[in-house]
Amino acid sequence: MRKFVTEYLKNREECQRYEISNQKPAGLLQTPVQNQRGKVLATDFFGPLSEGESGEKWILLIEDIATRWVEMLALKEATAEVTAKILIEQYFLRYGFPRRIVSDNGIQFVSAVMQQTMHLLDIKQNIIALYHPEVNPAERKNRDLKTQLSILVQNNHRAWPKYLPEIRFSMNSAKCSTTGCSPAFLMFAREMRTPYDALHSVI
């Protein structure tokens, strides 16, 4: 994992020499949510579940605390090595590298592999005790995930991975009572077009 991170950082430095800066000019104001967007993530594991059709047993849930944007990734293993690699490849390289990650003290997050990876990427870890899981925002998303999975999966327990995109879309497009906006709007400054919108426009 150290080699993977080191090589990425080296390649990134080389690419930046040829990049044009996309930094906004001074004087452009941002909202508090925009200023905090992408800086702090909450992570949690959901599972183990009945083995999916491709061998998946776990769901890694990642939530941007400022916007409430959530990602759900189906995994075959929940090891520290897999967790670190998936975080980098499937989230950080898509949305940017956070300043801080909040998680429980599961072995995936407190292992030497994860600590070394976070140190190399200059990401601080906030570890929450297992007896205070309610402090982790991702834990609340896990409860919502459990409810929606039970409704959609019913008796076809091996089919749960195929419902994750639908659940993720539902969570990210719904208005949050805390922020008054949908996670999608806070993340991208626009609402996502939903199947309901498409149906309504046709009618």
TrEMBL record:
Lineage: superkingdom: Eukaryota
Start and end residues of each Integrase catalytic domain: 28-191
SUPFAM superfamilies xrefs: Ribonuclease H-like (SSF53098)
Pfam families to which the protein is assigned, alphabetical: rve (PF00665)
Database matches in InterPro entries: Integrase_cat-core, Retrovirus_Pol_polyprotein, RNaseH-like_sf, RNaseH_sf
GO molecular function per UniProt: nucleic acid binding
Any one Gene Ontology BP term: DNA integration
Protein name: Integrase catalytic domain-containing protein
Phylogenetic placement of the source organism: Eukaryota, Metazoa, Ecdysozoa, Arthropoda, Hexapoda
